[in-house]
Amino acid sequence: MSAHPDAFSRAADRVRAARIRPEFRVDEAPAPQRLAPFALALTVESAFEDRDPVSGRFVLLHDPDGVDEWEGTFRAVVFVRAALEPDLVADPMLHDVGWSWLVESLAEAGADAVQLGGTVTATAGQSFGSLADRPRDGFVEIRASWTPEQVGPTPVHDLMELHVEAWIELLRHATGLLPIAPGLSHMHAAQVHPAPVRTQA
């Protein structure tokens, strides 16, 4: 296949139109080639050098024939990695809390999903010897995927910005940012540059 189906082209347009918080910088990246016939990927990092490190990835997959395990023709795959205080990393409830961030983020963005699954991983490090003066560090990593679901009469491919915004909301939770107050607009359209789309041979 040498061209996108119309549904994927429209979904990609909606992904690129998602609203992004100013604390994050989002760029389009080469998409994986073997997971689905059509794919688009975004990466994220902190927009400010004085912020704690954060990184992540959003991948939208599309198979026009559908995938039984997906229960649909689209699949969103996300990754988030954020710095945490070492004491928080040791909290036995962190894994449950991290997963609740994802569930809440989907709800807050109005992104309906089925076949939601993923993992939450907490890591802590401490330096020794000549590096002993370095502070302890900790990170939380959240990996998840879900199938975007149609809402009312709107086709699912015209709702993809909601799923990107859910990913951004998950980043907000993981980095401890406050929600944007109602009536205030601190979001902006994603400034992403389309990357060449690669399809399976």
What does this structure look like?
The protein has a six-stranded antiparallel sheet. Strands 1-8 form a two-stranded antiparallel ribbon. 23% of the residues lie in helices and 35% in strands. It has one domain. The longest helix is centred in the middle third of the chain and has 16 residues, at 94-109. The chain has helices at residues 6-16, 86-89, 94-109, 160-175; strands spanning 19-20, 24-29, 38-46, 54-67, 72-84, 113-125, 137-148, 188-189. It starts with 5 loop residues before the first helix and ends in a 12-residue tail after the last strand. Mean pLDDT is 84; it is low at 183-190 and 196-201. The chain is an alpha+beta fold and 201 residues long.
List keywords for this structure.
elongated, 201 residues, 4 helices, single chain, six-stranded antiparallel β-sheet, DUF3000, alpha+beta, 35% strand, two-stranded antiparallel ribbon
Calculate the terminal CA-CA distance, rounded to whole Å.
7 Å
Please mark out the parts with pLDDT under 50 across 5 or more consecutive residues, or reply none: 183-190, 196-201
Q: Helix content range of the residues, please?
A: 10-25%
* Binned strand content: 35-45%
Please summarize the sheet with the most strands. Answer: 6 strands, antiparallel
Strand order of the largest sheet: 2-3-4-5-7-6
Specify Rg, calculated over alpha carbons. 18 Å
Say how many strands there are.
8
SSE sequence, one letter per element: HEEEEEHHEEHE
Instruction: Label the overall shape.
Output: elongated
Tally of individual domains: 1
Integer average pLDDT: 84
Number of helices: 4
InterPro entries: DUF3000
Pfam family, one: DUF3000
